[in-house]
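Subject: mismatched residue count in predicted assembly?

I count 263 residues in my input, but I want to confirm that the predicted structure covers every chain. Input:
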Amino acid sequence: MSDTSFSADVTIPSDLSEARLIQDRIEEALQSSAYGERDIFAIKLAVEEALVNAIKHGNQMDPDKQVHVSYQITAERFDVRITDEGPGFNPEDVPDPTEDDNIERPCGRGLLLIRGFMTDVQYHGRGNVVSMYKLRNGQEEY
Amino acid sequence: MASQPARRRRLEVEDIGDIAVVNFVDKKILDEQNIQMIGDDLFRLVDELGRRKVLLNFGNVDFMSSAALGKLITLHRKLQGVQGKLVLCKIAKDILDVFRITKLDKILTITPDEQAGLQAF
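Triage response: the counts match. Full output below for your records.
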């Protein structure tokens, strides 16, 4: 197995199209590192949800605020840390969208998907920093 | 890529009997503006065009985020409200995980292919 690794540290404005460019770069790097399609889908989805949360809910789309993204890809795992400049939040306060009372609510599923697709997810500080990783070829049952 | 997203066709709708079979033009259902327009087009099928049976064929879709799920739930509720039905079919395995993790596979009717979808009404 190759032990090549790739890392990047990027700062973007609160702009979803900039987030897409990062997504594309991460996807290319994962493909270069020969990650499988299933892992790539999971990572892309989790990063998409986390970036949308940071830009929309964290920075409230404020063009004066930025999002910092640092990620690392090794043969074994993908790590990413996303920091926004918003007030943060407590993940415990987010209602469980799988509860009967919430299941038909049209939003609030991003965090659930991040947790479902990544191996581990942690929030830091006031809740404006999320770090997560996924083991390659993760055997977790979704 | 820098061009503004125009008001272009995002769905292809084919009538099979009284069932509106909807195919997505885009492979990725992601961008919020795009999702908003897809939602508007889907809701129009029910609200303005009076369709009561809608089959969404995901055969062309290879990526979808949680932002799109809200539109599907709203469409499901709209159809339930008029004694109609929403059925989803041909969802790629990875995207099926999105429905499983969010447990939406419990409230939405999902079939493996279009034929099974047509028979689910």
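The two ends of chain B are 40 Å apart (CA to CA). Marking this ticket as 'not a bug'.
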